[in-house]
Fold this protein.
Amino acid sequence: MTLHLLLASSAPVSFFKGWQFTGNFTSVDLVAASTNALNGALLARRPDHYKNFTRVGIICMGLLGGLSGGITRDLILGHVPAAFTNPAYVTLCLGFSVGGYLCAYTSGQLFREGIFQLMTSFSLTWFAIVGAQAAVKAHIPVLGCILLAMISATAGRWLIDVSSGVTPKQFIRGEWFVTVAALTALVWILTYAAANDNTWIALGVAFAVGFLARSAALWYGWEEPLASEPAGVYKHSDGRPLLGRKLAGKSDRELHDLGLAVENPNPKEPDGSRAATTNETMARAGGVTGST
């Protein structure tokens, strides 16, 4: 009887309803989700994040990056996430995740860092704008609007970093990231108020400011300031390569420091040569070599 009541009272299954690409900032949200899904798949294949992920795992990482920001934003606002009610979100994110998996490397196994950073600049600003817009629409105070924009813009990267066993980017040395999300949200709010609630003018100004600020930070190596350390306790390495610069002409050491070079053993190198190299390295490091 209970099963009969459950089946009788259930709503009909909807297969082809709910598709929406425009209206209420849906277009901007879809662009943000799609580009971040591409970022997620690229990041999952990046050498400093890759943990023997399967193909399905990499695509799931793309979905995590593309959908997490919007889902987190909608849940905070008390809404059913748009990713569950509009099939366009999952469909586009799936497609862009597959694209990120396929284009992660060029010939010679060099990670496509330029594409990744460019897409990050796009998705970060788009998500911040949609977060600010949704918060203003919900009549949240300005500081709350900025906070929600920061969360929605960076939640996907947080989850991918944690899933990959990497310290989340929000907390470590790197080009302006969280700050750009906050700046973009603030510019959108101020422009929206100054332009008599014209969302499209606010969107254009905020995107231009946020995208240019993030791109300039990547190109010139502007980094969020590190916490001060007592003298002699901790020393940061000098000569850190800039992530935003083109990688052409970078040395093997620079690519290795960036975590972008995939190190493969040379199949043509004799085993004895590798063993001799290992012993020489141990000897220089003060290790014990030879027979005992």
Remarks:
- The CA atoms of residues 34 and 95 lie 8 Å apart.
- Residues 26-220 form one domain.
